[in-house]
Design brief:
Blueprint lengths: L22 E6 L4 E6 L2 E6 L40 H11 L6
């Protein structure tokens, strides 16, 4: 019941085996924009789907439960915010947290 409308977006990059990476995805329905960042740098921009809102559904949020394959690796931390971040804000967050993980 929560499957439509459906929008799928690809990051445009991979995380190699044994690579430690900081990934950020930020989305704005108002700007119709979805940005993917790796280690504080913008890698890919796509439309957010063109819908005026993102609805809250009753489906569970699954992390690392892939469409075809599950994620194999370690996830150190996850941050969830209810707003869109600019490129400068993402860079600042990365710079302020990367040292915790020796990056």
């Amino acid at each position: 019941g929560n499957g439509q409308p459906y929008v799928g977006r690809n990051s445009g990059f991979t995380v190699e085996p044994n690579e430690l990476a900081c990934i950020c995805v930020t989305r704005s329905q108002t700007l119709n924009k979805c940005d993917w960042y790796k280690n504080g740098s913008l890698v890919n921009t796509a439309s957010a789907g063109g819908y005026s809102t993102t609805n809250n559904g009753s489906s569970p949020i699954l992390i690392a439960d892939g469409y075809r394959y599950n994620f194999i690796g370690d996830i150190y931390c996850i941050y969830v915010y209810n707003r869109f971040f600019t490129e400068d804000e993402v860079s600042q967050m990365y710079q302020s947290t990367r040292y915790r993980f020796g990056m």
